[in-house]
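worker-03 picked up job from queue 'complexes'. Input manifest follows; two sequence lines, order preserved.
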Amino acid sequence: MTDRTTAVSVTAGSTSTGGDSPAAVSVIVPVTERPHDLAWLYRTFSEEFVAAGRPFEFVFAIEPWGRTLAESLDPLMASGEPIRVLEVGQTVGESALLDAAASVCTNSIVAMLPAYPRVQPGALEELVEMVEREGVDLASAVRVSEGVSPLNRIQNRLFHMLLHRMGGGGFRDVASGVRAMRRSILEDLPLYGDFFRFLPVLAAREGFSVVEHEVEQHPEDQRTRVYGPGIYLRRLIDLLGVFFILRFTHKPLRFFGLVGSFFALAGGAILAVLFVQRMGGRGIADRPLLLLGTLLVVLGVQAIAMGLIGEIIVHLNASHSRTYRLREDLPAGAE
Amino acid sequence: MTNQPDVSIVVPVMNEEANVVPLVDAVREALREALSWELILVDDGSQDRTREVADALSAKDPRVRLVALARNYGQSTAMQAGFDCAHGKVVVTMDGDLQNDPRDIPLLVEKLDEGFDLVAGFRIQRQDRFFTRKVPSWVANRIIRWITGVAIRDNGCSLKAYRRELLSGMRLYSEMHRFIPALAAATAGARITEVGVRHHARTRGESKYGLSRIFRVLADLMSIKMIRSFRVRPLVLFAVLAAGSALLGTLGVAASLVAIFTFQPTDATSMVFPGIALLWFSLAVFLLMLGLVGEGVIRQHRVRGLKILPLTRMRPVP
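worker-03 finished. Artifact:
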């Protein structure tokens, strides 16, 4: 493991293919955000695999609006390059594209590459090499460069600081989107919504060994990124979702109970004060505080009730799902 | 494994490298002649050499098996992983810190043979600190007994024996291992009894428990109560709560009417009581809707053909 690599969660479980010939890799390119010329992308990023003698295929997952973009790949496909284009029938988002593409990949190592250059071409081979040779389940790129914009750096630090607080600590660049992993990760982790972004966090949580590896950022990715307020709001909502998934998926009452208890106790305290004042002869019928106290108690009861329903759902689903991953194969004879 | 052993002993271990060898020796010594057995050590993401030590023991004796979890999942999930791998007719759980005594295992199995589905050990002379362990435990057991209705005097004792069929229909998650008797009674109508067992002071390693678990236990208790009482008809619980809420709303309306007809209401007075009444009525409607959602969830579960009551008996045995 090089000096540029940070182990986020390390477990055993190397499944190195052994032998001298490099393992084959499937590279998934979900064509969503700011797509570049796909033919250029293929030629640029496949060069390193060719140089390393590694068998590979590129799977471009495309929504209906991106069909014209895929036309640049037609000549390459016609000339026998290992390219497949997966067109989905409607706009489904990046997670669903990745999920659909993963289902058609056959190689044991899968890499993900955004549809525009975020890292230098050599990075992908480095990540794949780590998965193949170093017993890592998922290697995720951390973009580094001298010329990174201060605004980008602040945004990135703030995001990862919040992620750390939410329980996904130790990561520096989950949003890079450039990753290599064993296919079993995609089989074990359901991808939906915007959670593809947090794949390394969720994989580490499930006990896979995940490392972040520093790679050089592509100049095209270095420009200052400023998004609309809606994007920032969505990221915050994503973080809240990850927080809940990481900590409370199997115990919803702990979350809703805590929130509900806070509201109910605050409301109860207000009502208790008003009760004491009423006993002391002071009227409370015209006190808006009475309304606030009642509102807080009502909110508390609602939150706790939501948690109870959540517990019923978890209890019923727990009866037919395995909630753990084993570190290695069970001894002979195990079920 | 070709022959089914009499007993599978499931022991979750985390950072117990000093205890694993003495534990295996103690089990061997205790069950030498009495029963055929397998010992399943479930490594719950240890940071020390527990896994390596257990692996070496497993290589020497095929009756000792190691199940290594990918990370630290907690005791309930570790136990479930052990149950999933157990082959024995009877499954016994115990702690990996040697505070339980394996010599009590034959006693538990014997009791199980009298026709029980679950035999829970209770520690006769508990060797723990009085104020930080015994007193909270005594209070917790009282509360658990009161809420769950299952009269187990020592829920914290891990030494328990289960009929295998009982566990096959149960999935542990969160921190439900403390409430297996209550869950077993609630979901399977299990016949449960207790026997007194030995308890030793911890000599090696560190305790993994702290007082911080009080809130977690309380939340789990509420959950168990919900599952025990309303898992088949959640609407009943929510309808009762909704009725209470609606009653408070009605009182709010009554207070509003009294204020309007008795006093000369100010603007504030004419807002507060109707507002309170509306809040309680809205809560009642919300709870009713939530109860209906619960009913829908239960129905979906049944439509998928999943069993609500996993343990059934037929007599005479065919």
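worker-03 released lock.
The beta strands of chain B are 7-13, 37-43, 64-68, 90-93, 118-123, 160-163, 192-197.
The mean pLDDT of chain B is 83.
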